[in-house]
Design a protein that fits this description.
With 399 residues, the protein is an alpha/beta fold. The chain is 38% helix and 12% strand. Strand 1, helix 2 and strand 2 form a beta-alpha-beta unit. This is GAK system CofD-like protein.
């Protein structure tokens, strides 16, 4: 018979002895799970892999902007751009890695080239004649060519290849070549670049984000929410859901796969990191089963809030973000969270830089929520940017 217990220890911040031990043996490092979306965590991930090779990154597949949007529209697939960029951040950059594969997967086709030239470049890649692929040894070269050939065969003649990521094209071909599933190609991708960590979509489904604003407006599509490709929203976000397509409101949801559930439940530390508050962080918590799995994990959960201005946090103070984060997690639990003896915390720690002004913080309300504040040095030179190494050391001190 087994049982779950919470064991408390005296915590130092940062715990440099603990951190040094992890860096000395990263292959035996802790399993730290990040709920993240876009590129905000990539720089931290590149440093974090020096301390542990067992981090888990659950990435949102709901991006509907940039070059990912073209592939989604062409093939009705989940967004692959954020998956690719996180895998690249975790790639082995030592001599044991595959620099030729890394160079190929991070390359983008010329943004200014004519359509005919771009098609010719893609053909040279498929044929294995392009300099970026010619230097890759077999059998990796043949595997990559196969995925690219599938993409080439399926895209329409008028498909816009300008600025297209080769890595995204490879992943799209792998998706189409594996019964419209992302997991097999992500696994292959990880092996090819020797990823020092695990990256998965939270949900292997081609869905989009929908939000209702305080003024009653409905907005569909991640690209319309982030204010990166469009104007900022005219009103704060009231609620969010997963949606079928971009043409009309069709709320839906799917349950996470058993391996995602197990990863969340067994992580040594769960981190809610910086990034677009709704479209990156909360979007990862929307699928059925995520909140329940978080509640089943007895280990620490920590929220590292954004610095600077996040357009999606319009109208939200730091305290409001904390309360909304906890509420979204608890919504997924059947019955009353406080009356469910099998449920642990939704959030334990609020990790803050010791000098940055995050605005008003209601300490008494945090006590009611059983959330403790941890303040430590997380910023060095740039006022609105976290120092990747200091953040990594702080998080690892919690494990």
């Amino acid at each position: 018979m087994t049982s779950s217990l919470r064991i408390w220890r005296r915590m130092l911040m940062p715990d440099l002895v603990r951190v040094h031990r992890y860096r000395s043996l990263p292959e035996q490092g802790p399993k730290v799970l990040f709920f993240s979306g876009g590129s905000a965590l990539n720089k931290i991930s590149r440093v974090f892999k020096e301390y542990t090779h067992h981090s888990i990154h659950l990435v949102t597949p709901f991006d509907s902007g940039g070059s990912s949007a073209r592939l989604r529209a062409e093939f009705d697939i989940p967004a692959v751009g954020d998956l690719r960029s996180r895998l690249m951040a975790l790639a082995d950059e030592t001599v044991m890695g595959q620099p030729e594969v890394y160079a190929l997967f991070t390359h983008r086709l010329d943004q200014q080239a004519e359509a005919a030239e771009l098609k010719a470049q893609l053909q040279r890649l498929v044929a294995g004649e392009h300099p970026l692929i010619a230097c890759i040894p077999h059998p990796m070269k043949a595997l990559i060519q196969t995925q690219l050939a599938v993409t080439q065969a399926h895209i329409h003649d008028d498909f816009d290849l300008r600025g297209a990521s080769i890595g995204n094209l490879i992943m799209a071909g792998g998706y189409l070549n594996n019964q419209q599933q992302l997991d097999p190609i992500v696994f292959l991708f990880s092996r090819l670049i020797k990823a020092l960590g695990e990256v998965k979509t939270t949900l292997d489904a081609s869905l989009h984000l929908g939000v209702e604003l305080n003024n009653g407006d409905i907005v569909l599509g991640q690209h319309n929410i982030t204010a990166k490709e469009t104007l900022a929203l005219p009103s704060p976000i009231k609620r969010m859901w997963l949606n079928k397509g971009l043409r009309r409101t069709q709320p839906t949801n799917c349950a996470i796969a058993s391996d995602r559930k197990e990863a969340i439940e067994t992580a040594d530390l769960i981190c809610f990191p910086p990034g677009s508050f709704y479209s990156s962080l909360l979007a990862n918590l929307m699928p059925q089963g995520v909140g329940q799995a978080i509640g089943q994990n007895p280990n620490p959960k920590v929220y590292l809030p954004n610095l600077g201005v996040d357009p999606e946090q319009q109208g939200l103070s730091l305290m409001a973000c904390v309360e909304r984060l906890i509420a979204v997690i608890r919504e997924d639990v059947v019955g009353d969270w406080t009356d469910n003896a099998a449920v642990f915390s939704a959030l334990d720690y609020l990790l803050l830089d010791s000098t940055y002004d995050y605005g008003a913080i209601d300490v008494e309300r945090l006590k009611e929520l059983n959330v403790q504040i941890i303040k430590t040095a997380l910023i060095t030179t740039k006022v609105d940017k976290y120092d990747e190494r200091l953040v990594s050391q702080a998080l690892l001190s919690l494990v």
